[in-house]
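Write out the bound-state structure for guanosine-5',3'-tetraphosphate.
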Amino acid sequence: MTLETNTIATATKKSPLQKEIDKRRTFAIISHPDAGKTTLTEKLLLFGGAIQTAGAVKSNKIKQGATSDFMEIERQRGISVATSVMGFEYRGVKINLLDTPGHQDFAEDTYRTLSAVDSVILVIDCAKGVETQTEKLMQVCRMRNTPVIVFINKLDRDGQNPFDILDEIEQKLDIRVRPITWPIGMGKEFQGVYHLINNRIFFFKPNKQKLEDDVTEINSLDDPLLDTLVDGHADLLREEAELVEGVYEPFEKSTYRSGEIAPVFFGSALNNFGVKELLDTFIDIAPTPAPRTTDMRDVKPDEDAFSGFVFKIHANLDPRHRDRIAFLRVCSGKFERSKNYLHVKQGKTFKFSNPTSFMANDKSVIDEAYPGDIVGLYDTGNFRIGDTLTDGEKIIFKGIPTFSPEIFKELVNTDPMKAKQLEKGIKQLTDEGVAQLFTQQPGNRRIIGTVGELQFEVIQFRLLHEYGASCRFDYMNFYKAVWITTDNPKQLQEFSDQKYRNMVIDKYGNPVFLAESEWLLKRAMENFPDLKFHFSWEVI
Ligand code: G4P
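---
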C-alpha cells in the first residue's frame, strides 16, 4: 500500500489554467477550542517557511472571562483580519489555509468559511477526545462530504487509549477512520510514532523549536531492530499494528476524497512532532480545487470564464472608514485586476483596482488569482455573504448555510435621534454575518438572533463606536428559527394569521417561524402538513 501522490502540473498538454489549479490546496483547520488549532497552524507555517519564529501566529480566541473587554474584541478582530487567509508554498504547491474563529460564539463564521475550502484538518486533543464543537463543525463537513484528515494532538500528555479515541470519532462524527501513523506510548512514556504505511519510526524528542524529525526506517515490524529502538514497547506496537490492519480498511485516496474515510495522524503540535508527516501527506492526498454547485449548474474550476463567491466580510478596523473587505473564493477561470465582473444579485458590474492576496501575515495587491485562491476585495457596502461574481453568466453559488440562532433578543433603539444610524449599522453588521436579523411586520420590530451571547456585546459596541447609535437588547424566549417553504400559499397564510406573534421575515424576505419550544414546533408541523420547516437555510 502506498500513498499515491497528486500529479503536479508536469504533463505538457495541460493548459496554464489547469497547471495553476493543480498547484493549489485550499483548506481549514478546525477544532474545539484549546485542542491546538493555533499551534498547529503556526507549525505548518513554520514548515512552509512562511514564518520564521514560533509565536508569530496569534490565537484569535477570546479567552473566557474577557467577554466584556472590548479592547479584546477589537484585538481579536484585528487578528482575524490579518490571519483570515494564510497562503504559503510548500514543495511547489500553493497552500491556502483559511482561518476559522477560535470562539464558539462565532461558529457561524466558521461554517461559512468551510464553504470556501476543499478539505479540512481536524485537530483532536488526545485526552479530551471528541468535544461538542468538534461535532458541530464535522456536521457541516459531512453535509458537503468535505475530505477530512484527523490530527490527534498532545501525545506528550497522557490521553485516552488510541483505539478508544478512534471509536469515538467513528461513532460521534459519522465518519470511518484509517490510522496512518500509530503512537508508541503516550504522555511520559511517549516515544514516537510508527508510520504504518512506509514502516518508518519517528522518534519523539520534546522540542518546540526544532523542525527536523529523528527518523529510522525498518524493514517491517518483525525487524529485531525494533526491540532495541523502542524501549519496552516493541511487542505492544506489533500487536496494535496488527490489530489496526485487521480492523481498519486499507487507505485509499478515493474514499478519503469522497469524505467517507478520514486518515488519522498522531503527534504533538507544540513539539513540532508529527506535523511534517501530516503536511507531506496533506500535499500528496488533499484535493485540488473542486467544482462548485450553483442554482443552474455545476461550475468546474478549469472553465475559462471567471466565477467566485463571497464567503466572509470584514469591517475595517478604523471606525472612520466604512469600507470593508469582502473575501472571495475563486471557483473557475482567472480573476484579473481592474476587469469588469458581474455582481449577479445586483445586476451591476464592478471592477477592483486593489484586489488583495494573503501570504502568511503579508497582504499584497495582486494582478490575478486562480481557482482555490482567496481574494480580498475592498467594498463600500455592495457585498453580502453569498454574493456571486462572474464574467457575465447569471449563476448563483449555493452551499453557504445559515443555521437557526440559539439566542434571540429584540433590538431597541435608545436614542431616537440616531434611528437612521442604527438602521444602517445593523444592516451592515448583519451583512457581515455578525448575527441574523429578523423583522416582524407590521411594526418593524427587529429581532437579532445569534449563536452566542458575545455577539450582542460586539453589536452594541460596534453600533456605538462605528455608527454612533445606542441600543438595548430585550431577551425573547424563542427556541428556534425555522424557515418555511410551501406549494400551498393558502396554508401558509392561515399559519401566519394564527401565529402572527411568531412570524418574521429574514434579511432576504423569506418567511421564518420563531418557535417557542420543541413541542410547539412539532405541533405546528403536524397541524400544517403542507408547510416545510427548514432548520438551516442557504443564502441564495
Ligand atoms: P486552539 O487554537 O485550538 O484553541 O488551541 P491552541 O493552539 O491555542 O492550544 C491550546 C493550548 O494547548 C495551548 O496552551 C497550547 O500551548 C497547548 N498545546 C497545543 N499543542 C500541544 C501539544 O502538542 N502538547 C501540549 N502539551 N500542549 C499543547 P495554553 O497554556 O492554553 O496557551 P499558551 O499559554 O501555551 O499559549
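---
The chain has a mean pLDDT of 87.
Residues 31, 33-39, 59, 61, 102, 153-154, 156-157, 268-271 surround guanosine-5',3'-tetraphosphate (CB under 6 Å).
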